[in-house]
Amino acid sequence: MPNPEYFDFAATTPVDRRVAELMMRYLCDEVGNPGSRTHTYGVNARMAVEQARTHVATLVSATDDEVIFTSGATEANNISILGLAAYGERTGQRHIVTTAVEHKAVLEPVQHLAEAGFDVTILPVGQGGIVDPEQLRAALRTDTLLVSVMHVNNETGVLQPLTELGEAMSDHPAFLHVDGAQGFGKELELLRNHRIDLISISGHKIYGPQGTGALITRKRNGTDRPPLQSLVFGGGQERGIRPGTVSVPLTVALGEATRLAGQENATRTSTANTISEALITFIEAAGGAVNGDRSHAIPQIVNASFRGLDSEAFIVATKAHIAISNGAACSSHSYERSHVLEAMGLDPWRVSGAVRFSFSHLSQTPDWEQLTQIIESVRF
Question: What is the pLDDT of residues 52-61, one digit of tens each?
Fold first, then answer.
């Protein structure tokens, strides 16, 4: 049988062949440690890393020296949140604000600080999955250290109103961190807002390899960097924030994937919009309900529920035809009801019956009529 259509791009994307070819050059031919300054191999490696840094910085209107390479968004999230703890302790700023729909890579570091004595405010969302900027404004206190809000929700595709959230913080010194893992390279403008101090990204969400990412650390007034403390010590690479030998192949691949994401953004988005429209038509025709405000969402992720159909039953019944998920891949070892959908206040049947379709400009359209028939055959 042919392979099922892959509709789990929010979990990970395939590596673009152009990215893979460039990465292979630096894996096999262009050897060199960017920290080696005494010979051509090291100098060339460093130049390649700096070129990648420029590509990442350009996409979010940052400067090259504001980009710190990491292993992915999870590490970047941890550096952003835990790395500010010492500064918060010194200054008495021990209040953190985040939202109920964040990825566990944000919620768990925040919980770690709560256990260490920090005060945490969790902002609710409405049924559309969107944070109210006025609730953020009301939550800010004189001792607020950090606000962490995601760019695009990994389960629903909903965009948070980062411009309005930034405006709500315009007169407050708290740092604004954005988990940009799902939206980086897809929705471009919101992450260019200079009120955002810290942005976390991952390479494997934009057709780069797994195991690479970056943290953008914007300077205020062109000079003042976020007062981050490293979580790892030894070597001093990446401004001492993320020491250790920089992986040239992975970093070069991240840079090239970023460059292509910016260059091809319009055509990629247009194709994803076409697939999204067909998918939503299928969902509605099959009696399903779309979860999340689609007027504020990227096209590449659609979350839906079908009454009388458990999500696990849906996935098993359709797995020969389409590869989808019912939650974040990072938590797939132990499936739990979605904390995102529960925070949105959806009916229980919509939470238990939710499935996520995530796709891209590379996706092939599945046989929607066949999927509709399968749904009807297993619906109880």
Answer: 999 999 999 9
Q: Where residue 132 sits, what CATH number does that domain have? A: 3.40.640.10
| 277 and 242 together in one domain | no
Does residue 330 register a pLDDT over 70?
A: no
SS3 287: coil
Q: What is the pTM of this model?
A: 0.95
Cβ–Cβ under 8 Å, residues 235 and 325: no
Residue that terminates a domain, selected from 263, 291, 316 = 263
Please state the domain count of the chain: 2
Sign, CA dihedral 75-79-81-82, equals: positive
Catalytic one of 114, 138, 329, 330: 330
Cα dist from 29 to 34, 48, 219, 252, 275, whole Å: 15, 13, 36, 14, 39
**Over the stretch 94-113, which tens digit does the pLDDT of each residue have?**
999 999 999 999 999 999 99
70 strand-pairing partners? 213
**Mean pLDDT to the nearest integer, 29-34:** 93
Structural contact between residues 22 and 55, judged by C-beta atoms closer than 8 angstroms: no
For residue 333, pLDDT beyond 60: no
Instruction: Please indicate, yes or no, whether residues 235 and 130 belong to a single structural domain of this protein.
Output: yes
Q: Is 330 a catalytic residue?
A: yes
Strands (DSSP E) contained in 118-256 are 119-123, 144-148, 175-179, 198-202, 213-217
Structural domain boundaries enclosing 301: 5-14+265-378
* Angle 149-215-53 from CA coordinates, rounded to 5°: 140
**Which candidate, 299, 272, 295, 294, places its Cα nearest to that of 365?**
272
Q: What is the CATH number of the domain that holds 357?
A: 3.90.1150.10
